[in-house]
Structures are given as structure tokens and as C-alpha cells.
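SEVERITY: medium
COMPONENT: batch folding queue
REPORTER: lab tech (J.R.)

DESCRIPTION
The queue accepted two submissions in a row. Attaching both inputs and their returned C-alpha cells so the on-call engineer can compare them side by side.

ATTACHMENT 1
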Amino acid sequence: MGLLLLLTSALLSSYFHPGSVVKAQRVVILKDISLSMEPSHVVSRNTNVTLRCRANVVSVEKALSREYTIYKDGNAIYNKTSSTSEDLLYHLSEVRVSDNGKYSCRISAEGQQATSSAKKLEVTGLSKPVLHVNERVVAEGKEITATCTAHGERGSIFFYFYENATEIEERQVNSNQIEVKLRLSSVGTHRIHCAYAVFVRPDSFKSEESNAVSVTVEELHIAPVLEIFPHSKIYEGDELFVSCSVKGPPPTDKMHLYLSRGNQLLDRGNTTVSHRGIALAKDIGDFECRLEIGSVVKNDQGTISVTELFSVPTLTVSPAEVFQREDITLTCKSESSASERLGQEGLTYALEPPRSQLVPKGIGIFSGKSPSNDFNYTCVARAKNIVKHSEVLTVRPKVPVTTPKISVVGRAVLGRRFTILCQSDIGSLPINYTLLKGYDQLNTEAVTQPFQQALFTVSVDRPDEISKFTCRAKNSHREALLSTRLNATVIEPLSHPILTVIPGLSEISEEDNLHLICGVRGTPPVTFKWYRVGTELPLSTTTSDKNNTHYQVHGLSKEHSGVYYCEARNHANNVVRSEHVTIEVRMALWKKLMIGGFCLLVLFLLVVVSVLCFRSKRGKREAAAELSVEVGQSCSQCVEQATV
């Protein structure tokens, strides 16, 4: 209904306004586009297939131009522009497997496009391939021409050629026929056939096998000949001759000869090649004479066995453990020799390098002093121009131990366990260190690694015991060495701390100098500290190389009265503390004398005053007498205080 109203409106506008210029927009609707395959989407080979593209186009114009495009697997294969409403027909004549694929149709009109859904065409059946060869009988090494045809097929085709059941050739072409050159593998009759496969992405379709053709390959009557002289009983040092030649009529093609042993090419040429040399034990193996004529390869092989004149020498040393500058003997010997060809006198031995200081002492025997450092020796055996070397023998002379040194690790404290180190400056490992006390063996430590140390833990109860320790060092050398006696200081822990006061406790007065002497028993140096009870920090700290020292206080006063003590510590790390001492600072002597004199003066003045009063007032005699008594008592008290 909406479409009808739109068309009606356009027509009325054109009718009622004939004089106006109006450019009407064309309205096109594409719908119901589809693609069909006739007679079917699955057909056999040689069938004619029609692709029908149908669409419903709605437009004002009856003769609307429209463009059709046919696609196969996404690629455009046909394009046509039409002004009719008839269906577009696209014909595939005598379809083949190569026509397989997914087809679709697209229609375009007035800027509008519509595409049908894809539909797959499946074609079945392939023609049987036909094989032709140009020759049925060929000489060895010659090629034949084979032609394989897939009648009526098209597209991308892979052709395969087979010799008996083995594939020997594969080619890809865009035609239904291929011609190849084939060289058959060996002499005899061979059955040849072919097949092909049509590639249609992403699938491939393989044909049946073609007809089989028999081809006979005739052998060339020519062969290589290998000869080895001498034929048998070849010894090292014998002259060896090997030849490679050709037997038979010369071929028309150029030929090449190769003589080799294993992977080593000895000689090459066209007619005859040879090799001459001295037989060696390493020559044991296969010789090959190889003939190449074009692609034809023929060979002849021979094996030789070379008997050793003498075996590779071995070099040994005795004794097994060698020490610097001691006697050693090197022995060089071949374990086996061909006595029928070689007398014992014909085999000689020598040492390399020649500068070695060992001298011959017999056949293959060399003696002398061992070197100071590692040294490499090689034995050389010679006979009839044959030279053989032994493996390198490395002599590593060991070093005897030096006199060990004995020492204390850290400090030796009386009554406590401490560590003794025993060590030699030089010596080959392993080294056994033994600690002795007097003549008694205490313990043994084995040092097997560099930087490893022989450590022993002991203790002593008296300082003089330390000198009884010694140690012994020994490696595989025949001698053991003894150290000197252990010389070390034994630290005695501190004990019996005493705090002495000078002057005596009853004689300490103001303005005196006080000496606090702290003494202990033990090994110096000793660190002394003096304390006053009630104070956390020490009054003084000092270190002395003696067992006692003092702390002096100058100009005493009443404030110095209190309780004092001292502490001491040495390298044994034990702290001892003295008993507390109470110090009372008394009044100074001059103060006492001053108080006494003052009291006497007061007494004298009172007496004088009393006498004067007595004379002037006799009536007051009793009062004066009482006053005299009181003054006398006061003076007595003052005198007593001054005396104290």
C-alpha cells in the first residue's frame, strides 16, 4: 500500500504541474533473488548444466536496465546487462570435475544490489588416462618419452607416473596432456602407468590408473675392475698398489672413473686410475672403483686387511705417586708386533720432547729425577719408516709437606675450650694433621680440599700446659714432620676483686685527696671501672697492663660521702665486682680549731662581764653566779665539739 501511494503521488505531481521542471527520483526495489541449477546440482560428467538467476525487481519504469554477475567460489565468471524482466540463463556445456564449486548470482540496478545465496555444483566422473611411450626397449642409462592424456578434462591437473608400483615423476599443468622424460632405475623389464588428479579448491579428484606399458632396459656390456697388490698378507710398511680400470667395449657417451677409500677420493680419470703408497694399519677398509656413464653408475669394491708391524705404544710411570725431584722411571712398550717381519732390534723408542732430563736405561726405559712442575711426555716408536705415538702422559709431581705451624685461633682462656690450628704452607693434598700433647696423640684431621683447615678443640687447666701441644703433618710422602711447641698466652679469668681506700676510712677529711685502688687476680690487660651507688655511669674507666690501678678524687667535701665499688674485665670477658665500701668525709682540722678558739673567746668575755657586774652590783651576786655556770657549760660543749 505504501509503494502504491508513493507511485500515485509521483504521477499526480507530474500531471498537475506540467509546466514545471521536476527531476523525479527513480525508485527500485530488489527482492526474492535466487539461483537454481538445471537439471540438478549433482550431475555426471558431460552433462549440460544451466544456471538460472531470477529476481523480482519493483520499479516505475518497465524497461529498467539491470546488471547480472555470476560468481564461482567468489570469483566473477560472467557478466551481462539486460533491460528485460526475464531470468538470466548461464550455460555450462559438458561439465567436468573442474566445474565443481559454489555459484551465486548478483543483480545491480540504480545503485541497488542484491546477491543470491551460494549453491554448490557437484560433477562426478573422470576420463581414464591414456599412456604412450616412444620406445619399448632402451639401453641402460637412456631416457624414454612418456605421454599421459586425460581426454576432455580441463583445469589444474596433477599428472603422476609410476614404475611398477613406485611413483617416479609428478607434474602440474593447466592442460589435459603432458609429456615427460623418464630414466628407469635398473636393468630389466619395467611396467609403466600414469594417473592424474584434478585440483578444485579445496578438494582434489583422482582418476583411475591408465593402461600399463612394459619397457625393457638392456644392460651395457662394460664394467669397472678393481685390483689390489699385494693380494694378501699385507703388512704395515709394504708398498700398496690399487688400480681402477674398465672392462668391455667403450661406450658412445663419455665415461668417468673414480677410485676412493671410504670418504677419501684417491684418484679420478677417464680410462684408468690408480693409487700407490705405503700400507698403514688405518688403511683397513673398502676400496671402490666407480664408473659413471651419463646416469649409469657401476662399481667394483675390494677390502684389504693390513697387519700391524707393532701396536701403538703405551707410556707408564713408576712409582705411581711421584714427588718433586725424586727418582722416576718411564716405560714405553708396544704390546704386540709382527715377529715374522720385524726383529725386536728393529723397533726403537724415544721420548718427546727431547729436552726431558730422563736418560735411556734400556729398550723403552727412561730414568731420572722428576720435574718440579707438571710435565707432558710422549713415547715415539719407529720401525721401517712407520712411526707411532703414544697418548700424552702428564706427570704431576706431588709436593712434600713443609714443617707445620701450630697456633691458637682467637684466644686461649684458662679452663675454657679453645681452637688450635695446624697448617703447612706447602704440600700436596690430602694431608693428615695430628695433634699431640706431650707424647699422647689426641686427634687427627684430614685436609682434602684447598682452603680447608685442620682445627682442634682443647682446654687447659694451667697456663704451662699450653706449651705441651705440638702437631704432625703427613701426606703420601714417606716422611712426617713435627711442628714446634705451641707458644701462646693463656688468659686467666679475673677473680678476687678488692677495693682499697687511701687514706683509711677513719682518716678521711674535707679537702683531702682520696685514692680508690682496685686490684684483681688474672691476666692483664684489665679494664677497670669505678662506681658510686646511685649513679649508673662509671666515675672513671681505664685499661691497665697491671693487675691494679687507682682512681683519685681531689679536694674532698661532704658531698663525696657515699658507697663506692669497682668492676674489672679482661680478654676472658668475665666481669668481677668488688665489695661496697662506705666513705664518710669528716670536718677539716682547721675548722675544728676555729670553733674551739671561738668558744674560749666567748668564755673569756663572759667572765670579764661577770666580774664587772659583780663589782657594780653586789646585790645581784646570785644572778651573776648562775650566769657564770651557764656560760661555763656552753664553753664546755664548744670545746667538746671542737675536739671531735
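ATTACHMENT 2
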Amino acid sequence: MLKLTLIVWLLFSLAWRTTPSSCRQTRSPQTIRQLLATQLQSYMDTTVRPCENFYQYACGNWQLQQEQPAQHREREKEREREQEQLLPSDTLGVLDLNLNRQLEMALRRSNESTTEEEPPIYDKLRLYYRSCKRLKPYNLKKYLQLLSPGNGTHWPLLSRSWRREKFHWLTTIGRLRLHGLNGVLLKEQVLPRWDDSSVYSIYLDKPSLVETLPMGEGAMIELLLDIGQTKRVANALAREVDDFERRLHRLQELEDDEGAKEMQLGYLAEYLPELKWLPFMREIRVDTEPDVRSTLIIQNIPYMRALHELVERQQPYTICNYIMLKFLAYLKQQGPAEISRGECVASMRRAMPLASSWMIGQRLYDPEAEQDVGSLFKQLKQRFAHILEDNRLQLAPPIVHVLQEKLRAMRLQLGFVQMNDSGYVEDYYQQVELNGHNFYANQLKLLRLRVERNHELLLSSTATDLGNVSYLTESWLASSSSPLYVKPRNLVLMPYGLLQLPVWHRNTSSLQTHAVLGFALAHELIHGYDASGIDYDGLGNIMGPSEEIAGNQRFIQGLRCMQQQLATGSRSLNEKLADYEALRLVYETFFGLKPKPREPRDPLLAQFSQRQLFFISFGQFFCGKMPALSLQAHSHLEHAVDELRVMQTLANFEDFSREFGCEKRTKMQAKQRCRVW
């Protein structure tokens, strides 16, 4: 269950925001600190030695604290059974659950129940939410009935009159691309140009390695049963599609020996005539005839040719069903995991990310928070500027200057959309008409809207401030409370959802703020200087000094050191680099470089030194229980499992070992400590 103390935090935070200023002056700010001190100790398992398993030491009792008191159990018993599989498994999950409950309370209110005039966009958010709540049950087959493969044919499993000669797989991919599906057989995206990030281009590419991972026969059978197929049909079809999917996945091994090419659409149709590009683009841009003189950028051309050959060897029936299954899996991920209030809000945030972000900002934005976060980000930049100046990698002065210029240009943005962007948000959703009784149509309309709005960016000559990150609306990141670094914008984006305890509160200690929020900001800042971040300059163009840095021996040694630790940690080298460097950065930002002879202890936690508390607070942000994840859920994870992430990051930091007195042979002492910057 949701941890009780976080509910207390939420209520206290809301009360604090709505209490008159004269009353606030009488409320002791220590209340929050006392609560945090109690929570910190309740999470810990002090029977574990911190030098053997610091994660268990800091988080060993986290799961126990998720249980509510006995007097609440009877009242919540039914709800526990319904939501047992949907409980948050980590701190970000708890934050999102708190946030969803706040939004759900706001959406349940009728317009007559409040004297405040609500923005018009609230009506559309409420219509989507209500249409979701009225689902009984969630039926994926409805989507297939609303959206056919195109070209006058139907899905073969739903029609006995399916005609294979009318099925064109690339046309179907284009039709479903218009409704959000991407990374199936190929990928089409509207992204900032590599040489001028202020304008956009269409990028055609092969799917990512994760996107072509086989779904598995079990997942396919489950989807087929959901749309009313018999077990016999489901088993036979799953075997056929699984065989094709494994052949498709092997195409990932092809090297892109031709490299990326920019060409006009008309020339592409001649360069790769085996693929019907014009019908594909007509399905995506239904309101206008594709301009054959328009340019796009295509990568992995050898894959495209091999894809055509592979598809031609398969039965159209198999290809059509494969596309259908991928579409159903995508829609299942976008919709609610179950028909409940919280899950309908979560689905709303995925379907309407811009409107939801603005609504969240209306509830959580605090000018004091923006000032605090901005000040902390400025401190981190100042410390990293000194690190670049120290030039551990011994780079040439012009290269150091380019890196420093990029750091000076790096910006922080609070919220996916700004509080003064209400007009932009209203305009974005103006043309879409939602129905409080038709969830399936609502979902398809909103998925289509995101794709259409992104392709409209191709018509703008420059990227305005409002459109800075709007091209990310198709990404799951747009509906997440996780911060991110946007490389083409040289921008650290912190969602409004993080303006909650334990990440931020006006009364938390500076140590707590640095250990949690500071680390999150530092992690994203470092992504601007990881193995792919160095490709980008301060303007977000792929013109950074990557060749000079990537060839530096110290840089190579640092990456190799981290690479050796990937077997049991993160799947992404860049994530590990960001963790390792960010912890050092935020620690040195807060404590400085020289140890102080006598640092005052927190009277509420006098048994720990300030530095020990810093490491405990850092570790506890990652407290959680890793659930059994589906293949689709795993596709979004690049970080290590939380326990390994905390242990490896701390074991790599010599100040942690010194502060807790860890000997060389203990688990919390890395055999080799890795560092890049």
C-alpha cells in the first residue's frame, strides 16, 4: 500500500500552500524535518553492515513501511485485492501515485462545485477521464473495428472476406503510424535537424534493438485471446508470427555501411523503389499531398533492403497479423492497466501529456520551488565549470573552451509546458472533439493528434520557445515525472511532478535537497557530457568535439572501466557514467573539496555525521521493490536495478568508503574506481 508518511507529506504540503501567510509564520518548519528524520530511520535496517550492503542498510525496511495501520485494512481490503499488481515499486512510483490521486480529485469535481473558473482544457481532460471510467471492460478489439489496415481491406482475424492482394504492409504501417505506432518494421520521426536544431526534418530509420525483441508466444496468445480468438487459433498464429519476429530481429546485425543520407522524397522513391514510400507518406500526411521535393534523412539503408526481402518471403497473412499484434500491444500500453480511477488518470497523462503537464503545474508549481531549483542548478554548473577547468583529461584548450561554452548555454526548464503557455495548450487540443462515452475513439483521436502536431513542426521555419520540447509528446517521457536531458535543446527538463516530498519542499534541509534533487539535476547535466552527449554543441547541433574527446586515452580508460561493471548493472554505459559523475559533482558542490574539522550534526539524527546522512538520503531515494516486468516495461529501462545502482555508485566513490570506514575487501569498495571527468 501507499506509504502512510507520504500521505501525511501530501496533506501537509497542501495545507501549507493554502494556509494564510500570517498563520504560516507560526508553523514551525521543523515539522517536515522531523517527519523526514522519522522516515529515514524507519526505512533503515541497521542490523546490516553498511560496508557489506548499503542498499539493505538504507532501505531494508522500506517495504514494511508500505503497509497501512490495522484500522485501515478492513476498509481498504477490497481495493488492495484489485490493485495488488499496480502498487508503486519505487519512490518515483509513489510520487506518481500521489500525483494521480490529486488529479483524480480535481477531475471528479463538477464545474458547479467550485467558484473558480476552470480553463477550457479541463473539460477535455475530464471527458477523457470519464470515458475511461465508463469502460466495462477494456476491449482491445474495439480499436481494430475502428481502424482497418487500409486500402479497402480488413484485419484477417476479423473478416472472412480478407483479400491478400489488397494488403500493402508499408501502407498499413503508415496508417498506424498516423495513430502513434512507431518502431514496427521501420521508424519514422520528426526531430530537430542534426546541423540546425532550430528546424525539423523527417528521419527514417530501422527500429531500435529493443523494439525488435520478440514479444514471445505467451504475450501474443494473451493478446489474441483478448480479442476473442480461440486457444487453437491463438497458438497456431503465435508460432507463425514468432518465427517471423525472430528473423526480423536478426536483421539488427546488419551494419549501416552507407551511412545517413539526406534526399528528396521523390528521389527516395527511385533510390529504394522496392519500398512504396509515397503511399506510406500519404497515410501519415492525409490532409496534404506529399511534396516530392521535400527532404528527409534516412539511415540504415541496408536494413531497409533486407527488410523488403524478408517480408516478400512471408505470407501477407502473417505480416498483417504481426502488425496487428504490435498495434494491440502498443494500445494496451497506452490505455489503463485496469479500469480504476488512478489508472484512468495515468492513461490520461499518457494520452494528453501537454494538457496534463500544465494541469500538474497548476497544482504543484511554486515560485519558491523554481527559485530553489534554479539556484541549485546554478551551483552544480559552477562546480562542473571548475572540473572542466581542471582538465583532468588534458584536452586541448580549444576543446575545453567548447565544453565550457556548452555548459554556460545549458538551461533548466521546470515543467514540460510553462505556466504562461495556457493559450498554446488550448490551441494544441482545439481541433479534437472528445466524447465522454467513447474511450476508444478518444484514444485514437489523441494519438493521431500528437503525430499530426509533430509533423506540423516541419512547416515552421524556427523552433519557438513553446515548441522547444513539444516534439517529445510521442515519447513516454512526456508523461513521466522523471527528469531528462534534451540533447538537441541543451536543456535539463524537470517535471512538475518532482515538486513533492521527498524530492522538494520549502522546509527540507539543504543536505536533503542536494542529496536527492541535486543528484537528479546533476545526473541530467552530466548526460550533456556522456559518450553521446559530447556529439552535441551548446546549440544542440551534432557538431560537438566528439572525435577529439572520444580519442582521448583517459576518456577511453574511464569508459572501459565502467563497461566492465555493466554485466551486473545498467544496460546503458551513459547511465552509469551519469550516476558516477553526478554523485561526485553534487557531493563536492555541497561539501566542497576540503573536509571541515568539525561539521555540525543534525540534532534529530545525531548518530550520523552530515556526510553519512548525505549518502543515506541519496540511497533512500532509490528504495523500492523491483516487480516482475513485462518485455514492454523493460524496454523503457536503461538504469540498473535500484539496489545495484546505489551500491555500485557508492562503491565507486572513495569519500563514501572513508566516511563509513569500509575496508578494501568489503563489497562497498570497488576493486577499481572509475572516473571520466
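NOTES FROM REPORTER
The chain has three domains: 90-138+335-364+418-454, 157-311, 368-416+477-660.
No errors were logged for either attachment.
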